[in-house]
Amino acid sequence: MNTHNHDVPREPATLDRRSALAALGLAGVGALAAGASAQPGSLPAPRVPAGAAPSGEFGPEAFGWDERAGQFTLPKLPYASNALEPVIDAQTMEIHHTKHHAAYVAGLNAALGELKRLREGRGDLSLVRHWSRELSFHASGHINHCLFWRLMAPAGRGGSPAGELATAIDRDFGSLDAFTAHFKAAAAQVEGGGWAWLVRDRASGRLWITQTEKQQDMFPTAASPVLGIDVWEHAYYLKYQNRRSDYVQAWMGLVNWRAAGELYEAVA
Fold first, then answer.
1. Residue pLDDT, tens place only, 191-225
2. Strands 71-72 and 207-213: what pairing?
3. Domain with CATH 1.10.287.990 in the chain
4. How far is the C-alpha of 189 from the C-alpha of 185, rounded, in Å?
5. Which CB contacts under 8 angstroms, 24+ apart, belong to 128-136?
6. Does the structure show a pLDDT above 50 at 23?
7. Is the dihedral of CA 182, 184, 190, 196 positive or negative?
8. Under CATH, which architecture does the 163-266 domain have?
9. CB atoms < 10 A from the CB of 178, how many?
10. Confidence band for 268, pLDDT divided at 50, 70 and 90
11. pLDDT of 37-57, one tens digit each?
């Protein structure tokens, strides 16, 4: 189970959008949240404009940025909590969303607020390392989950790989069946809690399958997420207990391929 301490020390200071997104631009997957500009010397982050594809899955509302409050908020699920049954039960969805995902949002806001305080000379700069780690973990946890909810759809409604993504899967894996076997094996073999990802490597333009331990460890620097499955135990344990492979097998029937195609095509 998720044993990371999600206790938040105090209400963080509010941030302007530029400060928050600049920090997120250093958080790997988190850069996707608002198309944050890449830091000097790094590859450009992908930009996902609202309505970029017919599904429009990844507009600003998907990532919960509240401009007025200067903080991130917990976005609503894009469907009812029981919409993914029988693969994922309503209770698991509610706990996962309102408890686990909400904790990442709180931790992200706390880290951004504390780093702002340190920059303003209102704290101990020896804590930069600590709060930078908190930022990386919680920002990635928040963005990973924002993507996760939208990369699933009720059974039968997610479509099939199409267009550029389908062509790339055939090119880089040989076939959809070969991709699926590799992806399921990667998800089943994540050590501890983490994720399996289909990513587009921006250096080569190729698709890779990677693993993420925790929320951010091992994620390739130049990779942009296309499809990801959460294999922390809290994502499946109420229904599947320790049978992660059964969960992964069933989850493949929930993939929202239209949303995955949108992410793929958004990467420059």
1. 999 999 999 999 999 999 999 999 999 999 999 99
2. unpaired
3. 17-150
4. 6
5. 134/107, 134/110, 135/23, 135/26, 135/27, 135/108, 135/111, 136/26, 136/27, 136/28, 136/216
6. no
7. positive
8. 3-Layer(bab) Sandwich (3.55)
9. 13
10. low
11. 233 333 333 333 333 333 467
**Architecture of domain 17-150 in CATH?**
Orthogonal Bundle (1.10)
Percent of the chain with pLDDT over 70: 79
Listed in order, the ranges of the chain carrying CATH 3.55.40.20 are 163-266
What global pTM score does this model have? 0.80
Number of other CB atoms surrounding residue 121 within 10 Å? 7
- Could you tell me which residues come within 8 angstroms of residue 170 by beta carbon, excluding any fewer than 6 positions away? 176
> Could you give the CA distance from residue 46 to residue 146 in angstroms, rounded to a whole number?
16
Amino acid at 59: G
Name residue, tokens 């931790």: 107
Contacts of 42 (CB under 8 A, 6+ apart): 221
